[in-house]
Amino acid sequence: MNIFKKGRGLCYLNQIDCSFDFRNNRFFKLIVPTIFVCLLIYGSWAFIHKLCINQLYNKSDKRATGIALIVTHGCLLLIDFYLWFLIVTRGPGIQPIVPTFEIIEDSNEETNKDVIRPPSIFECNVQGYPIWCPYCGSVKAFRSHHSRSTGSCVPKFDHYCSWLGSVIGQDNYKMFLQFLIYISITFGIMWISTIICYLKNFQERNHDGNLIVIVILAGLGFFFTTGLLGSHIYYIVASNLRSIDIIALKSQTMRDKIVFISIWDEQTKKRYVVEITREQYCQFWDMGSVYGNLKDVFGSNIWTWLIPSIIFTKHRRGSQTQDIEGLENILDQYNVTVNDMSIERIKDKIRRGEYVCIMDAFGDYDRKSV
Ligand SMILES: [Zn+2]
């Protein structure tokens, strides 16, 4: 078993969690975004020069349409590149270092400094020890996943986007979705206006190869980005899930992997280790309503959901000297709460006697006397 002692806590060493960032190669990371930029530049040149100027402005009486399309396309392209810039510069976020939880008694003064009281609920192994990330030297919080690209545990990790060359996590997920919305509109306008113009020219036997290329590229881009956006929105609305949750649910080996939860029960004043399925675990983050789930991603002000942020400061990992009284304080904006329905479901299991073991965490002694 991958158990090791850390201060007054015992941790479970999770060694299989880097599998999603296999493309950790600088050349690979740059080549796809470069191809994407080149295609966008070529597509924009062909669209503006060949369609808007040559076909609409010079050869027909649709001068106003030509100008309107150039202005619209220019604005959308600026927004697309600005959002891309935000996604990369802001980054996915970094989970602060979380010391291990006070599980066992230890009289050593030195090691006692590096532990915190166990939170009321956390993910653990079968014996009730929290999951430890050996790369960061930290307990992994709920929804955090270690990314080799950033070299840190990323809060609400979603995926590594090869097209944009960035990991997507809590800090840039909203921008990523906004990017998908604006790039879909960009491709959609290019695709539809070029098809209309091409069909008109086809009757006049006036062919331009660039227009055919735009129809194909913009069409592919439009269907790919709208499909991706649709699936992201669907899973957010359904249960506030991220791509990594979907992968875990769809993969047979991941789905079969049981999740263990350590939970403090106020009624019995005891801590239990309960076994749950991957499906039950993925329901932990559901806010209970469509608006609640969307709000968790886009923020509480509905009017800013589609407006690109003007803040592009990057969050840094908090220092270890901060107040380490509780997990919530350490994680701050990255703290994730489990919904009441899931907690009730786990407590029902405990009442039915369906738990793995009763855990005697030393840090709970304070709680017992409350
Ligand atoms: Zn890590």
UniProtKB/TrEMBL annotation:
Q: Name one GO biological process term.
A: protein targeting to membrane
The reaction(s) catalysed by this protein are: L-cysteinyl-[protein] + hexadecanoyl-CoA = S-hexadecanoyl-L-cysteinyl-[protein] + CoA
* Location relative to the cell: Membrane
Occurrences of domain Palmitoyltransferase DHHC (ranges): 132-242
Return the EC number.
2.3.1.225
Q: Does the keyword Acyltransferase apply?
A: yes
Highest taxon above the source species: Eukaryota
Q: One GO MF term, please? A: protein-cysteine S-palmitoyltransferase activity
> What membrane topology does this protein have?
Multi-pass membrane protein
PROSITE patterns on file: DHHC
**What UniProt keywords are attached to this protein's entry?**
Acyltransferase, Lipoprotein, Membrane, Palmitate, Transferase, Transmembrane, Transmembrane helix
Task: Check the record and name the InterPro entries matching this protein.
Answer: Palmitoyltrfase_DHHC (IPR001594), PFA4/ZDH16/20/ERF2-like (IPR039859)
Q: Name one Pfam family in it.
A: DHHC
Where do the TM regions start and end?
30-52, 64-87, 179-199, 211-237
What cellular component terms from Gene Ontology apply here?
Answer: endoplasmic reticulum; Golgi apparatus; membrane
Domain free text: The DHHC domain is required for palmitoyltransferase activity.
Which family does this protein fall into? Belongs to the DHHC palmitoyltransferase family. PFA5 subfamily.
Q: Supply the name of the protein.
A: Palmitoyltransferase
